[in-house]
Amino acid sequence: MTDYHNASTEQWLQWDKDHIWHPYSSMLNPAKMVPVVSAKGVRLTLANGTELIDGMSSWWSAIHGYNHPKLNAAANTQLNDMSHVMFGGITHPAAAALGKRLVDITPQPLSKVFISDSGSVAVEVAIKMALQYWYSIGKQHKTRLLALRSGYHGDTFGAMATCDPVTGMHHLFTKVLPQHLFVESPRTAFGEAANDGDLAEMTAVLAEHHHELAAVIVEPIVQGAGGMRFYSGDYLKQLRALCDEYDVLLIHDEIATGFGRTGKLFACEHAGISPDIMCVGKALTGGYLSLAATLCSDRIAEGICNGEAGVFMHGPTFMGNPLACSIANASIDLLLADDWQTNIQRIERILCEELANALPLSSVAAVRCLGAIGVIELKEAVDMTSIQARFIEKGIWMRPFGKLVYTMPPYIISDQDLTYLCRQIVAAVAEEE
C-alpha cells in the first residue's frame, strides 16, 4: 500500500512526475510541479511552508477562497447523510433545492435544469439539447452549430468542435471533429455600442445557413481561454434578435463568467437578455467539487420530450451528486448573503488602478479589467518557467498562458492582499523585459 500521508515531499513529487499527466503537459519533459499541501482563505501553502496569495481562484472556481467554514459545514453535514446516490429514479433534497435556486437566480425563461459533473459535459449537454430539440420537432436537418473565433468551450469532443479551430488548442483533432461554422469574434469593446460591421458576418452566415443551424454558441461578454477579451453587451443583444429572426437557438457558455465574476450575477445580464440554453460550472461549488448545470427554457424541454425518444438522452453516473449539490447550495447562499456587487466593484477598482502601472512597460500591449478579472496582454508570449518562478519568489500564484498574464482572485481577498498581488504581477512582468 502506498502511504502518501507519511511519504516525504520528494517521494510523492517523484510519483507525480513518473505517473501523473497534468493539464496540457508532456510526460517526456514534465514541468516542475509546485507542491501544495494545504489552502486557507486566499493562500496556498507549499510543502516547505511558503505561502502564496492565489491570483487564479483555481481557474475561476474558488470564489470564496479555501477552507471556508460555511462550505466545510455543508460538506460535513451532507457526508453524514450520504455522499452519493444514483440520480436515475432517485432524487434528494440537495439536488431539488439547487435546481430551484438556479432557476430563481438565472434570467427567465430558463426553467429546467440538467445537473452534470463538469463544465465540458455541461456544454456537451447543451449541444445535445439543441440537436435533440430540432430532431424532435421534425427539423432533423438543423444539425450544425455557429461559434465565434477565439472562443473556447471545453476539451471533450462536442465542445472541442465549437472552439476556434486555429487558436482553440484542438487543431490536431480537426479531421475527426464535426465541422461547424465560425465567424469573427466581436471587435466592439465592452461598454460600447456594436456597429453594423461587427455583426455583418454573423448576419450573413445566419441568413445563408439558418436552415441547417441548430444553435449559436458564445461565451457572453468575456472570451476566456481564447484571449481574455471583453466585448460589447450590445453585440449580445443584437445576436439574440438575429437568432430569433432566423429561428436558431442561442447557447450561452457562462461556465467561467457565472456567479458574479463580471460584475453581474451572469454575464448575459450586461445585455439584458436570456439565452435558450445556459451552461454554468466552475464557481458553482465555490471550487470544492466538480459540478455543472445546463439550463433551458420550457420550449426546449417540451420540444425534446414530445419527440420520438420522449426523454432527453443523457445521464452521467455522478449526475446530481448530493455532496456537490449541497456545497453548491451553500456557495450560492454565501454569495448572495453578501453585498457581492459592491465587493466586485471594489476588486475591479483596485485591479484597474494597480495593473495600469504595467502600461508604460515596453513588453505590454494592453491592460484591461472587468469585474473581478484583470488582464495584462503582452506583445510576445511569456516564458512560463521563468515568469512562474518569479511569481513564486514574490509570494503569489499565477498561471499565465500565451501572451496573457491575467488574474481572477477570490472574492474574499482583502484590499491589502489584492494590492500586493497586483504590484507583484507588474513587477514580475517588468523583470521579464
TrEMBL record:
<comment type="similarity">
    <text>Belongs to the class-III pyridoxal-phosphate-dependent aminotransferase family. BioA subfamily.</text>
</comment>
<comment type="pathway">
    <text>Cofactor biosynthesis; biotin biosynthesis; 7,8-diaminononanoate from 8-amino-7-oxononanoate (SAM route): step 1/1.</text>
</comment>
<dbReference type="GO" id="GO:0004015">
    <property type="term" value="F:adenosylmethionine-8-amino-7-oxononanoate transaminase activity"/>
</dbReference>
<feature type="binding site">
    <location>
        <begin position="119"/>
        <end position="120"/>
    </location>
    <ligand>
        <name>pyridoxal 5'-phosphate</name>
    </ligand>
</feature>
<dbReference type="InterPro" id="IPR005815">
    <property type="entry name" value="BioA"/>
</dbReference>
<keyword id="KW-0949">S-adenosyl-L-methionine</keyword>
<comment type="function">
    <text>Catalyzes the transfer of the alpha-amino group from S-adenosyl-L-methionine (SAM) to 7-keto-8-aminopelargonic acid (KAPA) to form 7,8-diaminopelargonic acid (DAPA). It is the only aminotransferase known to utilize SAM as an amino donor.</text>
</comment>
<feature type="site" description="Participates in the substrate recognition with KAPA and in a stacking interaction with the adenine ring of SAM">
    <location>
        <position position="24"/>
    </location>
</feature>
<feature type="binding site">
    <location>
        <position position="253"/>
    </location>
    <ligand>
        <name>pyridoxal 5'-phosphate</name>
    </ligand>
</feature>
<feature type="binding site">
    <location>
        <position position="59"/>
    </location>
    <ligand>
        <name>substrate</name>
    </ligand>
</feature>
<dbReference type="InterPro" id="IPR049704">
    <property type="entry name" value="Aminotrans_3_PPA_site"/>
</dbReference>
<feature type="binding site">
    <location>
        <position position="315"/>
    </location>
    <ligand>
        <name>substrate</name>
    </ligand>
</feature>
<feature type="binding site">
    <location>
        <position position="282"/>
    </location>
    <ligand>
        <name>substrate</name>
    </ligand>
</feature>
<keyword id="KW-0963">Cytoplasm</keyword>
<comment type="subunit">
    <text>Homodimer.</text>
</comment>
<keyword id="KW-0808">Transferase</keyword>
<feature type="binding site">
    <location>
        <position position="152"/>
    </location>
    <ligand>
        <name>substrate</name>
    </ligand>
</feature>
<feature type="binding site">
    <location>
        <position position="399"/>
    </location>
    <ligand>
        <name>substrate</name>
    </ligand>
</feature>
<feature type="binding site">
    <location>
        <begin position="316"/>
        <end position="317"/>
    </location>
    <ligand>
        <name>pyridoxal 5'-phosphate</name>
    </ligand>
</feature>
<dbReference type="InterPro" id="IPR005814">
    <property type="entry name" value="Aminotrans_3"/>
</dbReference>
<feature type="modified residue" description="N6-(pyridoxal phosphate)lysine">
    <location>
        <position position="282"/>
    </location>
</feature>
<keyword id="KW-0663">Pyridoxal phosphate</keyword>
<keyword id="KW-0093">Biotin biosynthesis</keyword>
<dbReference type="Pfam" id="PF00202">
    <property type="entry name" value="Aminotran_3"/>
</dbReference>
<keyword id="KW-0032">Aminotransferase</keyword>
<protein>
    <recommendedName>
        <fullName>Adenosylmethionine-8-amino-7-oxononanoate aminotransferase</fullName>
        <ecNumber>2.6.1.62</ecNumber>
    </recommendedName>
</protein>
